[in-house]
Amino acid sequence: MKRIYVNEKWCLGCHLCEYFCVYANSGISDMTEAIKNKPFVPRVNVECAENSTFAVNCRQCENPICVSACISGALSKNDDGIITVDKSKCVGCGSCVMVCPFGAISVDGNGVANKCELCFSNSFGSPLCVTHCPNNAIVFEER
Length: 143
Hints:
Blueprint: E1 3-6, H1 16-24, H2 31-35, E2 45-49, E3 52-56, H3 65-69, E4 75-77, E5 83-85, H4 95-99, E6 106-107, E7 113-114, H5 128-131, E8 138-141
């Protein structure tokens, strides 16, 4: 299965991946409209640690502990191996956030789990964080 990988040596810390993530998951066709004066809740987050920056995103684990920890059944792994969130089922308990070993799940402004779904549910075809990374620090490949 193809996954997103980050080469932290190449990450500039520009946060463009976050902006394109918000845009990709907004359902709005104009990027300015999707972001301007709206809550900014990306599914990928750029972290800074010592002398490096890197994008943190869901690793789409083979045996996802977050799915097992979800008390409402809102998280599931689909046939393509992508871990998705059914926002209508999420009760906002935060169990998935606490057990994710990578810190890749957050809770959005509505108290619902928020995580990368590889742009599976939108019409872009591939993750926009990857296609718009100016330094190619984020890749979408099989390893």
